[in-house]
Design goal:
The chain is built from nine helices and 16 strands. By secondary structure, it is of the alpha+beta class. It has a five-stranded antiparallel sheet. It has a four-stranded parallel sheet with strand order 2-1-6-7, covered by helices on one side. The radius of gyration is 25 Å and the shape is globular. This is ATP-grasp domain-containing protein. It comes from Photobacterium chitinilyticum. Keywords: ATP-binding, Manganese, Nucleotide-binding. InterPro entries: ATP-grasp (IPR011761), ATP-grasp_RimK-type (IPR013651).
Length: 335
């Protein structure tokens, strides 16, 4: 008998199918059944339950979502509700936080984590933005707070650049304008993978010639690199502060201030692709093992919690029955 059942929604391209197969196999070895292909974007909710592909999602012991490329607003909408009903990885609170670059940077700053200087303000308050640009010698990075893969990022070299893009920004749905100080660096970064507050692996990304973006989707390339204990410790702290169970922390070295700086904390860091594995990035098996450990521990903890709750409820019912019986006995004696 399979005591636990979890749901998965995993990307299938770039080696995702094989990664999913390994996760499912290892979960089965631990008596945990895995239902795959549960895309909340195709789900529906009614009468207090969420249904997807014939499964009642809220009866699962856990849901693991790992598909940034096909993420949709409706999928995220139901993910929030599901996360309030069963354990999810990542938990929705941390996931929602790290989807917003400003909120993530703001939280890291409040906890003393070295990160980029920023300003967020009403998109119509251009004078306030110009004031900060002057302080940064006219240079800044303009980012959408919820973008990924380097999409929508614009580098400002002067106040004039801000004047040029301002009409475009004001037409966007977002009410805010978010910019970061340009950090002098060597156009490479560190991506630290973390699962369950444990260091999994590190690799680097290098911007293409003539570019400053290290994102692979923006033309950057993956490189092998060894992290120092300082880099690993910084990444672990950043991930823990955000509350993510699975995290990819992007770090660069600030040449001007001579310190490592956290750029972003990502909730869906990619596994190594088959090509990247051939190039020397061989952390997938470790990441899968840590992830399966996390899933097993979470569902077992949830089961123990439910059993304890059910036991307490049963005890309360028994006590109520005893009190009722005692009251009836006293009433009979009185009569």
């Amino acid at each position: 008998m399979i005591p636990h059942c979890v749901g998965l929604w995993m990307y299938q391209n770039s080696g995702g199918t094989e990664i999913e197969r390994k996760i499912v196999t290892q979960l089965k070895d631990r008596n945990i059944e895995a239902v795959t292909g549960l895309d909340l974007g195709q789900a529906s909710a009614h009468n207090g339950s969420i249904f997807c592909n014939g499964y009642m999602m809220d009866e699962l012991d856990l849901f693991f979502s790992y598909n940034a490329g096909q993420q949709s607003p409706f999928q995220v909408y139901l993910y929030q509700t599901l996360s309030s009903m069963i354990p999810t990885i990542n938990n929705y609170t941390a996931f929602e936080l790290t989807e917003d670059k400003f909120r993530t940077a703001h939280l890291l700053k409040k906890h003393g984590i070295p990160s980029s200087d920023y300003i967020v303000c009403n998109k119509n308050n251009i004078e306030q933005l110009k004031e900060h640009l002057r302080f940064w010698q006219g240079k800044a990075i303009c980012k959408p707070v919820n973008g990924w893969g380097g999409n929508g990022i614009i580098k400002l070299e002067s106040e004039r650049d801000l004047d040029l893009i301002h009409p475009y920004i004001t037409k966007q749905n977002s009410p805010q304008f978010y910019i970061e100080r340009v950090i002098e660096n060597d156009f490479t970064d560190y991506r630290i993978d973390i699962v369950d507050n444990k260091f999994v692996a590190c690799y680097g990304r290098k911007a293409a010639s003539g570019s400053w973006k290290t994102n692979v989707t923006s033309g950057g390339s993956v490189i092998c690199r060894e992290p120092s204990s300082e880099v690993i410790e910084l990444a672990l702290k950043a991930a823990k502060i955000t509350g993510l169970e699975v995290a990819g922390v992007d770090i660069i070295y600030d040449i001007e201030h001579q310190q490592y700086v956290v750029l972003e904390v990502n909730g869906i860091p990619a596994f190594a692709t088959p090509d990247q594995e051939q190039a020397g990035l061989n952390f997938n098996d470790t990441k899968i093992s840590y992830l399966v450990d996390l899933i097993e521990r979470t569902v077992c903890k949830e089961k123990a919690s439910k059993e304890k709750t059910n036991g307490l409820e049963a005890s309360i019912v028994d006590l109520a029955a005893i009190d009722l019986a005692s009251a009836s006995h006293v009433k009979e004696e009185t009569l």
